[in-house]
Amino acid sequence: MSKYKFVDQARREKPKPTIHPIWRGVGFLMMVLIPVVSYSLTEVLILQNSQKNWVPLPYDLMAKPTDLFWAGDPLLYVKIISTLFFALFFFALFTLITSIVNRAFGGPRYGPYDVPPIEGKVRKKAR
C-alpha cells in the first residue's frame, strides 16, 4: 500500500474531458479548406491584376528559368507569397471569430483549479 493511493484513486475516477468528434472534423476541414481558398483567391487576384493593372508586380519576384524552383510559371513566387499571406489572414480571422464566440458563449473564466482573484484593497508599500 503506497502513501499516494488516495491521490491515484481520485485521478482515476475523474473522466478526462474529450473534444467532440464534430470539432475535430471542423478542424480538419479548415486545415484543408484554408489553403485551397487562399490559392484560389490568389489565382483570381492575379488574373484580375493582369487585366486591370492594380498593382505592378516587381521583376525581382518573377521566376527565371535559371532558378532552382523553375516550373515554367514566372509568377510562381508571387503565388507562393500571396497564398501564404491569405492563409495567415484567414487563420487569424477564424481565430478572432472563435475567441469572440468563446468569450460570449464559453464556459466560466476560471476553472476549479484556479485561484480566485483578490477582492480586497491592495495598498502599495511605502518606502
Tell me about this structure.
The chain has 127 residues and is an all-alpha fold. The protein has a domain at 20-96. The protein has three helices and no strands. The N and C termini lie far apart (54 Å).
For this entry, give a set of tags.
127 residues, 3 helices
Write the layout of secondary structure elements.
Layout lengths: L4 H9 L7 H32 L23 H30 L22
Helix pairs in contact: 2-3
What's this entry about, in short?
This protein is mainly alpha-helical.
Largest sheet report: none
Q: What's the total count of β strands?
A: 0
* Low-pLDDT runs: none
**Radius of gyration over C-alpha positions, nearest whole angstrom:** 26 Å
Could you estimate the helical fraction of the residues in percent? 55-70%
Structural class: mainly alpha
How much of the polypeptide forms β-strand, as a percent range? under 5%
State the end-to-end CA separation: 54 Å
SS summary, helix count: 3
The outline comes out as elongated
Order of helices and strands: HHH
The average pLDDT value, as a whole number, equals 84
